[in-house]
């Protein structure tokens, strides 16, 4: 029903230090959680890639080399949908629409390709981004396994 909050069948919460080595751990943990929904291999690969992009964005862009925590919340639902929230308490995003444009990068060194959000959007059914400058960003990925 509209406005009614559905209850997840299972949930996982994870906190990781904002270190690049933890991106693989985040990907593995979310993948392990997703297996209970019996995804196809290509669906699982897509979810893993989207999670990698979101976690990497939190580490590289959110904290910009400083120490912080990446918060991950996964919820599985009876309709074979998984919702993954990746949150940081870093610098935030000034202009979300601009940041979501393919090839845009906030990295002044030019080393980053600016495809993170485009990749997330191509592999998930829904991508929601909320952010507040100097308070952090939350990326919510929704993936329904067919």
Notable features of this structure?
146 residues, alpha+beta, Heat Shock Protein 90, five-stranded antiparallel beta sheet, 4 helices, 32% helix, 27% strand, globular
Structure description:
It is a single chain. The chain is an alpha+beta fold and 146 residues long. The chain has a single domain (10-144), classed as Heat Shock Protein 90. The chain is built from 4 helices and 5 strands. The protein has a 5-stranded antiparallel beta sheet, with helices on one face. A hairpin with a 4-residue loop joins strand 2 and strand 3. Helix 1 (22-34) packs antiparallel against helix 2 and helix 2 (41-62) packs antiparallel against helix 4. It is globular and about 35 Å long. The two termini are 22 Å apart.
Overall, the morphology is globular
Number of domains: 1
- Level-1 CATH class name: Alpha Beta
Structural class by helix and strand composition: alpha+beta
The stretches of 5 or more residues where confidence is low (pLDDT under 50) are: none
- Give the total of beta strands: 5
How would a textbook summarize the main sheet?
5 strands, antiparallel
User: Secondary-structure element order, as H and E?
Assistant: EHHEEHHEE
Q: What proportion of the residues form beta strands (DSSP E)? A: 25-35%
Overall pLDDT level: 90
Report the CATH architecture: 2-Layer Sandwich
Strand order of the largest sheet: 1-2-3-5-4
Radius of gyration (Å): 15 Å
């Amino acid at each position: 029903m509209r406005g009614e909050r559905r209850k997840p069948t299972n949930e996982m919460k994870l906190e990781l230090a904002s270190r690049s080595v933890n991106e693989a751990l985040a990907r593995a943990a979310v993948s392990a959680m997703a297996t209970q929904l019996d995804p196809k291999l290509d669906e699982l690969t897509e979810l893993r890639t989207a999670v990698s992009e979101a976690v990497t964005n939190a580490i590289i862009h959110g904290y910009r080399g400083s120490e912080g925590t990446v918060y991950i919340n996964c919820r599985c639902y009876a309709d074979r949908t998984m919702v993954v929230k990746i949150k940081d308490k870093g610098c935030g995003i000034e202009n979300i629409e601009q940041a979501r444009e393919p090839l845009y990068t906030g990295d002044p060194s030019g080393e980053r390709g600016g495809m993170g959000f485009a990749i997330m959007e191509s592999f998930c059914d829904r991508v929601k981004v909320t952010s507040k400058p100097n308070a952090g960003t939350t990326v919510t990925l929704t993936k329904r396994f067919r």
